[in-house]
Amino acid sequence: MKIALLNHGCAKNLVDAELMLGLLAEKGHEITMDDSGADIVVVNTCSFIHDAEKESVRSILGAVNSGKKVIVTGCLPQKYKDELKEAIPEIAGMAGTSDLREIAGIVEKIAGEAQYTSHVSENPDYIYPEAVARRQITVGASSYIKIADGCNYRCGYCIIPQLRGKYHSRPVENIIAEAKSLAQKGVAEIVLIAQDTTSYGQDLYGELALPELLEELNKIEDLSWIRVMYAYPSNLTDELLDTIARLDKVVKYIDLPLQHSNPEILHAMRRPVFDYSALIKKIRAKIPGAAVRTAFITGYPGETEEQFNDLYEFVKRMRFEKMGVFEYSREKNTYSYGLKPQISAKAKKQRRNKLMALQQGISREINETYIGKTLPCIVEGFTDDGVILRSQYDAPEIDGMVYARTEKPVVPGDIEEVLIETVDAYDLFGVVV
User: Do 346 and 289 fall into the same domain?
Assistant: First the structure.
């Protein structure tokens, strides 16, 4: 049976997709990324915000309309199982967020002419399928490792805990084994992901154990870089910051989605309320030269112009190296869905654009400080007139790139020194030295 997979959403979803492909490959199915020649198409969906849902639905409809048997997996069926089947009756099968192991059985039933089969747990509880060998969709310089899934927080705008269940950490030894396996395959950078990486170990070991995990990963000889994503403000402890500063393979990059800076809005968001300015200053004091990435939401219910201006001034003062801004998306079954007043779409967009325009100028000014300096960069690929790289201050797929000329042969995954000659707001340009 030839099976294609279309994946939507975050890096955590990508790992789930690769696990499902691993389960299917174990059963002897042929895997393809080209759905035109496939017998069955698996669409792994995202339901974090409405726009992501629409994108997932477009893929489902496209596969259905091309006459394929379609299995829908992940967040969308977990959130809308009955409504989804009613809206698109041609769907042949579904699997929820914590039902990855059922994918091979679902395929078998559909291949055996079953009209429809579904495995969507009423109360999802994601446990990582440790015995499964991931079938990687993307093979390159870097690879993601999911160190935990689920979430115990109840942020006002977020539905993830309802879709993924409680926070579950993976054992250290399993993560280390996976990292060693990836390194042996030529992966130079591993990127640690979870709904919140900084809560790692609390459920399993009774304490925050990310520093210990980083210590062990740092010992893996064939790895060049270790990157941590999705930190939670109140869990960014002195011990963790000191560990990141000290370990040579852990890149000096702090991904810290703050969501807002105004205390009243943070309270309404059910987020930690404390002085984020002090936290950013501490990060920069403990890890000199670190790049701090953050993300904010504009137009959360009740956000006044004055509260938005607090956020604008905060961004101006903090001068984040990297920043994303998202317009608030009203999602059913979240705390914020019923909050009033809801902010108009026009105001949300205007506030987002104003913040991003500010950040664009900040980003360019920060990039200009690299001109004339040499940065270690990881080789990603090639263009017609040079090589594409990425510095330690840029995460895969979301941050900027480094474009360089080279007179010497370079290999994807290698770390090369690049002399930076020119920059724009997000990317660097130079020559491999």
Answer: yes
